[in-house]
Amino acid sequence: MCGIAGIFHVETPKPVDPVRIERMCDAMVHRGPDGSGVWTDQGVGLGHRRLSVIDIEGSPQPMHSVDGRTAIVFNGEIYNFRELRRELEKGGAQFRTSGDTEVILAAWQRWGPSCLEKLHGMFAFAIYDLEKRQLFLARDRFGVKPLFMARLSDGSLAFASELKGLLAHPLLRRKVDPRALDAYLAWGYVPDSHSILAGVQKLPAGHFLLLERGRELRAPSRWWDVDFSDRAKGSEADLSAQLVHLLREAVQSRMVADVPLGAFLSGGVDSSSVVALMSEASADPVRTCSIGFDVPSEDETSYAEQVAAKFGAEHTARTVSQEEFSAIDELAAMFDEPFADASALPTWRVCALAREQVTVALSGDGADEAFAGYRRQVFHHHEERVRSVLPAGFRETVFGGLGQIWPKADWAPRPLRAKATLLALAESGEEGYARGLSVTTSDQRHGLYSEGMARYLSGYKAEDELVTLMRDAPARSGLDRAQYADLKFWMPGDILTKVDRTSMAVSLEAREPLLDHRLVEFAARLPERMRVKGQTGKYLLKKCMERYLPDNILYRPKQGFVTPIAAWFRGPLAGEARAIATSSTLAETGWFDPRALGTLAEAHISGRADNSRVLWQLLMLDKSLTRLNLQS
Description:
By secondary structure, the protein is of the alpha+beta class. The chain has a 6-stranded antiparallel beta sheet with strand order 2-3-1-9-8-10. A 6-stranded antiparallel beta sheet has the order 4-5-6-7-11-12, covered by helices on one side. The protein has a 5-stranded parallel beta sheet with strand order 15-14-13-16-17, sandwiched between helices.
């Protein structure tokens, strides 16, 4: 895994200072501590930080093609590079290295942008063609690897793997985009369609950008999408056999490395499935690691130990204290943009534990999105049945009315916390799913904004983007649309961002076999009954893994990493919660109503409400703003 950066003068070929590229790369040294390189030519510069995983000695970057016509910087792994190399060699291509980087160069020279369809893996890369004076930027299908871009005042386009790289450029403006701020407060992260800084963009997942000197900037082109509009035919047994085959291929392809390799093991369905298939494919014991908590009700290490023992894994576990709030500043520094998924803390800890043993770790990320494993997807599936039989007017009147008067009972047992469900049923399926996915509603956010901020947004509503994405999805059903939204919106913005930044912070390469695109394309074609059966999500995945895993692993209630932020804000972070309204960087922006923020904090601290998620968002936003050193 690596970090890349570069500068391309779109209009006139101004000189590029190699020191500037070097500084952009050095800001991301954690992504590549094993080596660095910079190359510049007329109007272009490419830089690279390397974490050596494959062809450790033989693939320095930036790398040039054999004929010297093209140069590349690449972040990621191409899992089918050996097969592609053989295909290219039959066509006359020559290679000087044994890694995947040179294969991408040869594939680009053979097929142009169509080469992307042949690449199986996670990647963000830049290729410069010296003859055509073209810069080609590309990002993998799901957005596993990030790529930030900004048009600068000198006419250049700068890009980097992290916002840190762009922040190292002196011409980057540091002014917050208010719409990105609203989106962050809606979702708890800045989605890939926005950046917290105005003028900065993220190349969308499954897109490329082809630039040519002297021509206007083009919009990115989509080269891949997932299609839920078709349905696979076959019996449950046949589809299960196909699924096992695809799972094996996905796991085995991601076990290629010239450095120590292992896996995260939480004891849940997804990571346990990955470890089971790794064990099947390996002659040596699989190295696994897990993090436990000092609160027994939130600790899953016994399940991880059960799976590790079953497959003879070399397992390492560590118990961490729930009192992790002292690391908040360091956590904010990893993400640059505000990021409020509190599970980032334990994810960072398990990555650090893994890095003590291995350089590459396989994870179980992606299965919930692809196979409908989230509780919200199962709820949405059943809510859509209600919407299909009750007219919209009836639902809006009855469910909407009940939802308005139903108390927000955060303290009550789950069956009695019906307010959100009632309000969701009063809306369309897309609006209801956006409500369920969001941290705050538009009304709640506007209740916190200052009058000036509300006027600036002038009707902008972050949820509309997700609603439109779902309505335009290549899909047949509400469940299809929910999964499409999770794969295209939630996963790159939250899950993959979290894993990329926390793993790269400790120089660990994380690989996601359950995001093999062939596996996800198969899952998208499964009949709904093979994804959700009753209250069980990921039905076929669990069914086919019964030959490997016991029922208490497959069918116990889903549990993720838990961070006790509600308790923190009533204890050691109560002062920080109060400061948000009065003395923080956030308070000085003028974006929020101080009285509303103060009321929010005091209601939580006193125990009258659970406002912990919103307070966590505001705290992480404050920490990020401090680091960004904004311009007026």
